[in-house]
Amino acid sequence: MTARNLEAAIALQNAVDYGLTAGIHSLSRQEISDWLERVQAGNVYVNRGITGAIVQRQPFGGWKKSAVGPTAKAGGPNYLFTLTGWRRSDNEATEPIQGQGVNQLLSLAAMSKLNDDELASLLRAAQSDVAALRNYFAMKRDPSALASEQNVLRYFRADCSIRIQESASEYDSWRLLLSAVVLGGARLSAASLPAGVAEILARAGVTLAQESFESWLERFSKTKGRVRIVGQYPTSALGDVDIAVYDGQPTESGIIDLLPFFKEQAVSITMHRFGNPALHVRGLSL
Question: Above 90 in pLDDT, residue 169?
Fold first, then answer.
């Protein structure tokens, strides 16, 4: 296939339903930057082949229909998180919570039927969410640190919905509400919400719907994708291959609980040209 310019080529590349690997060969720093900003694939390569991913250097896994189920990149730092279930235990996060919405939500939770241990757990969970957002998902890492090749793992927000079932425990409901406010811009559906919560969610940019499971499912089935759900639900209703369901017990770990809301991208850039340093890719902003 041919394209009249890079913009048209990117449009063709992104038009398919799949997004496993993609690559570009260019000596233009601007072209490479534009492509890296817009390409929709899990593994992307600059000035090199697009096969032969190596554990840790280029953790492997795709976007869109190139990913199935609640998974993370094979060979990456989050892969083992998705291979088991997790139970809540005390977290040692001490990140200060500066967001007004999170503090207001914690104040409302203090007036609920939660006991002191559960309230303390929610505070630690919120601190861990904030820490994960600032110090984990916002960071770009190159653990291999090769001179000849840059290999960076970076994160983008995933289109993950939140559904709180009527049968969800009070703790689990508050835990997901806190995550929604820390993240901002999430989509949340619940059978019902405590008084005052809707206003806090709206100020945090959370799109809210108070509705039955059937009403939510009718809307969600049109777009599909990822869903973080707590409470009992008919598993057959979410059995589509294009739906990734995260229904594990909420924990105090921000990394584990926020992982469904992020998709990973491994970027690999050849830093030389026939053995000579490639100055046009030095210091590229990723």
Answer: yes
